[in-house]
Design a protein that fits this description.
about 210 residues
């Protein structure tokens, strides 16, 4: 056997070895997709409940942000409530100036954006694994066809097309979740920056 044939056979064997981890990872992608769908539904319900009748401008007109009490703070959505708690803690510690407010806002924005990392990864990982899971059985299918085993060839083709469907489905669902949740994140960041600007104005007036 020449060197080229050995290399080709080795690559074919390596591809078959990768078959099991690729199929397992596809199931992991399916599991994470279902998890992110459920998580997004919970977030949608909570967001709708928190924003029902809430207006950031009206809330800010009710008094100073830094002196907001628990009753007033409880009317804020969870992300804004968390930011306000951090801002008030920094204000009491005397660390709000000299970049303290900007750092707190940046930390909360980063926390919101990190929530999108999982679905964004699935947008690329799902279809990529689906393509790999398609090509590996295709090699076995061609080998079965060359040997005249049509039944084995048909079985491998079914596996190949199924992995493509699963990979594309997970990527498509993940993309839809990212697009939906991205609008929520941007809206929350906009409200957080608005809140921070009002805090800055209050600090300058003192």
């Amino acid at each position: 056997m020449n060197l080229l044939g050995a290399l080709e056979n080795g690559l074919f064997a390596l591809g078959q070895v990768l078959r099991f981890p690729v199929m397992a990872l596809l199931w992991v992608c399916v599991g994470f997709t279902l998890y992110f769908v459920g998580q997004s539904l919970v977030l949608a319900i909570r967001r709708r409940s928190e924003h029902d009748g809430f207006n950031i401008r009206q809330w800010l007109q009710q008094g100073e942000v830094l002196k907001a009490g628990d009753d007033r703070t409880s009317k804020l959505p969870a992300p804004l409530r968390s930011l306000l708690a951090s801002v008030q803690a920094l204000h009491q510690a005397g660390s709000l100036k000299h970049g303290g407010l900007e750092n707190a806002v940046a930390e909360h924005e980063e926390r919101l954006r990190k929530e999108l990392l999982g679905p964004r990864a699935l947008v690329k990982i799902g279809p990529s694994l689906g393509l790999i899971g398609t090509l590996i059985p295709m090699g076995s299918s061609l080998a079965a066809m060359a040997a005249g085993n049509l039944q084995a060839m048909a079985g491998q083709m079914v596996v190949a097309f199924t992995t493509t469907i699963v990979g594309l489905a997970t990527g498509t669902i993940a993309y839809a979740l990212v697009a939906m949740r991205q609008t929520w994140v941007e809206a929350t960041i906009r409200e957080q920056r608005y809140l921070a600007e009002v805090v800055v104005a209050e600090m300058e007036d003192r």
